[in-house]
Amino acid sequence: MDVQEIKQRFGIIGNSPGLHRAIEVAVQVAPTDLSVLITGESGTGKESFPQIIHQFSARKHGKYIAVNCGAIPEGTIDSELFGHEKGAFTGALADRKGYFEEADGGTIFLDEIGELPLSTQVRLLRVLEAGEFMKVGSSKVLKTNVRVVAATNVDIPVAIEGGKFREDLYYRLNTVPIRMLPLRDRREDIFILFRKFALDFAERYRMPPVRLDEEARHVLETYHWPGNVRQLKNITEQISIIEQERNISGAAMRGYLPAGGASQLPAIYQGRGVDEKTFNSEREILYQVLFDMKKDMHDLKKLVVDLMHDQTPSTETRAEHAQIIRNLYQKEASAYAPEPTVNKPVQFDHSADRADIQDTEEFVEESLSLEDKEIELIRKALDKHKGKRKYAAQELGISERTLYRKIKEYDIE
Q1: Distances in Å between the alpha carbon of 287 and those of 66, 199, 284?
Q2: What's the N-to-C CA distance of the chain in angstroms?
Q3: What is the distance between the alpha carbons of residues 249 and 219, in angstroms, rounded to a whole number?
Q4: What angle separates helix 17-29 from helix 48-55, to the nearest 10 degrees?
Q5: From residue 275, how far is each of 271, 272, 278 by CA, in Å?
């Protein structure tokens, strides 16, 4: 059976070389029992290839079970895959066979394999290496003879670095890799897919199929398609139902395409200005902040020293002082000003009468000593109860004997 017949049998649409290569690899590996890992973005059509592998293998008369690992809660996935014994956990009212036991002699497709918990990955590795597993709550080793085909849209090497996927399991699954190209790398297939979907929806909803003019086709083929074939199918269905006009223009087509998937062309690099700085780490940013603070403090000290020693500053000195102040507070002023203002030179009036300057209140830092606080509380309690130690001790929550000892210790009158 050639590639065209396989595409027709399994409903695969497209003529791109990458798609044909993936089909050829699937057919070639099918007669073996090697594990296959299918990678690619979500919506690229990975679910068709495990069926190709199963139908062209010696296991085609056995069971084919597809499992979405990402749709099963972490607490029950071991039970779903490997089964459980009665009473293994709350709600386990009877023995149950898992998917690996049910698929004995057939093929099991583990979709979204990257979502498996680490504990389940250990169990799966044992199945792949020895064909053995144990049910949840059982110590009995069971045998199974299954062909495992897995798929994921997760970058497994990155997941391995992050400690979310076992490296040994990855190499065991990745015996034969098949990579599905994203739709943006199969641009020659975009219009073919759209036309097929439009005909299918026209037949389903009993209406004429939609057609694209040249501009609409160009918009369709240059779109980024982050959701791949699944997104293209959904948008084709929307257009088929909503649009009254069967000939779709470019403007109408743009109305159905989210802006987030616009054609992503390389940006033109403008270069950096002379004063523009880049930082490769937080440490460099911190160093730069410290250097700027040191420079600002130096300028501020210079300004204060000049004001203290130069009672009649010249025009040039006053201008230099004004520039220092502008540099120190330029960012703060611009952040709170409702609109730009023109900086004016700072005028220093040394002829003003200094007699009207009032003394400020002296600020005394509060003591945080426990001893001082204890003396203060004892004095307040004695003042409140007019020197009666019995009532002062009750107020403080201590015995009268302890209060007497502290009065003597701190020499409180």
Answers
A1: 56, 64, 5
A2: 110
A3: 10
A4: 40
A5: 12, 8, 10
- Per the listing, tokens 């204060």 go with 304
CB 209 within 8 A of CB 240: yes
**Percentage of the chain surpassing pLDDT 90?**
59
Residue 377 token pair: 């509380």
Closest CA to 193 of 230, 152, 242: 230
Tokens standing for residue 344: 């004016």
Whose tokens are 């250990």? That residue is 122
For residue range 73-113, what is the model confidence (pLDDT) as tens digits?
988 999 999 999 998 888 888 999 999 999 999 999 999 99
- The Cα–Cα gap between 374 and 77 comes to 62
Residue 115: exposure state from Cβ atoms within 10 A (0-12, 13-18, ≥19): buried
Q: In which residue ranges of the chain is pLDDT below 50?
A: 263-279, 333, 335-337, 339-342, 344, 346, 348, 350-354, 356-357, 360, 363
Are the C-beta atoms of residues 78 and 127 closer than 8 Å to each other?
A: no
pLDDT (0 to 100) of residue 342:
47
Q: What does the pLDDT read at residue 378?
A: 87
Give the torsion through C-alpha atoms of 124, 125, 130, 134, to 10 deg.
Answer: -40
Smallest CA-to-CA distance from 176 within 1, 63, 30 is with 30
- What secondary structure letter does DSSP report for 52? H
3-state secondary structure of 230: helix
User: Can you say whether residue 343 is alpha, beta or left, with left for phi > 0 and alpha for psi between -120 and 50 degrees?
Assistant: beta
The structure's pTM equals 0.62
Distance CA 234, CA 231 (A): 5
Give the sign of the dihedral formed by CA 29, CA 31, CA 36, CA 39: positive
Among the listed residues 241, 177, 238, the one whose alpha carbon sits nearest the alpha carbon of residue 49: 177
Query: Phi and psi at residue 309, in whole multiples of 5°?
Result: -100, -25
**Cα–Cα distances in Å, from 373 out to 377, 394, 408?**
6, 18, 16
Q: What share of the chain is helix, strand, coil (3-state, %, to 5)?
A: 50, 10, 40
The predicted pLDDT at position 113 comes to 95
Q: What would the pLDDT profile of 19-28 be if each residue is shown by its tens digit?
A: 999 999 999 9
| pLDDT value of position 60 | 95
Tokens for 285? 């940013």
